[in-house]
Amino acid sequence: MTIMFNKCLMAGVIPLAIALSSTAFAQESTGKGEVEVLNWWTSGGEAKALGALKDQLADDGIGWQNMPVAGGAGTNAMAVLRSRITSNNPPTAAQVLGYDAQDWADRDALSSLDDVASAGNWDEVFPQPIQHFAKSDGHWIAAPFEIHSTNWVWANKSMMDELGIQQPGSWEEFMASMKKAQDAGHTGLAYGGQPWQDATVFENVVLATGGADFYRRAMIDLDPEALDSDTMIRSFDRFRELLQYKDDNSPGRDWNLATAMVINGDALYQIMGDWAKGEFLNAGLEPEQDFMCFRTPGTQDAVTFNSDLMIMFKNDNDQQQAMQRTMAEIIGSPEFQMTFSQLKGSVPARTDLLADKLDACAQRGYEQAKAAAESDTLMGSMAHGYAAPASVKNAVFDIVSSFVNSDMPSDVAAEQLAMVVQGARS
Ligand code: BGC
């Protein structure tokens, strides 16, 4: 399935379901011109956060044409974006992740945001790991919305209380707590069996097993000796151990439906980026009262991150250019960074804001992200386009998902991982 999908993309064919979903955009205009924004923010929490941008643009008299392409992590959205560009019909702006932003900049498709960035002092307020992806050749080419991180566990608090489960401090305690839930007739791990979700959970396990240095060597430096190593084999062993706590209906499940299992008391935990918190918040739940958040056991000393970037496509029309600048200005502003993250589940990408307006999970997350940026342990997420270019990422997805959906032994998986990554790089 994954392989077929990738082949479609390579051949430049957009699968029908995706093409159809892209036509389902909503149009709203205030008469002063409008922006068309391609994004994959279609869950309840995501749509609410995106609404904050639409509202703020409306305050500036700018209309909104939404172009949502459903599908977590943007896999489908990127296919639609490519087809729009190929047919010479780019949207005003698009939500993208790190390496994809760089790719569009290399193709000279993007408007420069240098004026807005210099007026807003972006060089000072956004941390280096974000600038690394939002700038190209020293020029700002993207406006960062936030910092998300992927090494979080979201937990049903009443189930923890009912079963006497304390926050697990180690991998062993983590497994034991899921076993307890399973023995009591619940699902231990809410799991969405889609390639990007498999990879999101897997990168957590790699970090928990090998630590920050190993994660960097394997996932970012793509060192073949780390990819095919005993530590990677052990990571796959642990991944297998974890997978026994998912339910039988996990294949193909969307991430927000997995989150709903934790919200509704059907499952104890979900391992997912903090956009999952946006779903809890959207359901009116309070962190640390109604649900718990903690770093995946064994990953407390590092943060694997991604950041949604808004890129603006080159345009000859003065009005479109002015609206692009306004949109970038809004996204980078202190007020918007705070409002957006309060809805989205993330933390602001700006490091100069007061954390006290954030919820309990995000307050910790914000300090952890800033500390990690200082100590060089704010590391790009492989599953979310911040560790390696799309070709490598997709190759990793293929092996990790094959492992999930078969009884592939761990040593074979590690060997194959090293092999496909090597192949994707050459
Ligand atoms: C994006 C998030 C989004 C999540 C699920 C991630 O790659 O950064 O903004 O909520 O995918 O679609």
From TrEMBL:
It is found in: Periplasm. Keywords: Signal, Transport. It comes from the Bacteria. Residues 1-26 form the signal peptide. It holds the Pfam family SBP_bac_1. InterPro entries: Bact_solute-bd_prot1, SBP. The keyword DNA repair does not apply. The keyword Transport applies. GO terms for cellular component: periplasmic space. Belongs to the bacterial solute-binding protein 1 family. Part of a binding-protein-dependent transport system for a sugar. PANTHER family: ARABINOSE-BINDING PROTEIN-RELATED (PTHR43649), BINDING PROTEIN COMPONENT OF ABC SUGAR TRANSPORTER-RELATED (PTHR43649:SF28). This is Probable sugar-binding periplasmic protein. It comes from Kushneria avicenniae.
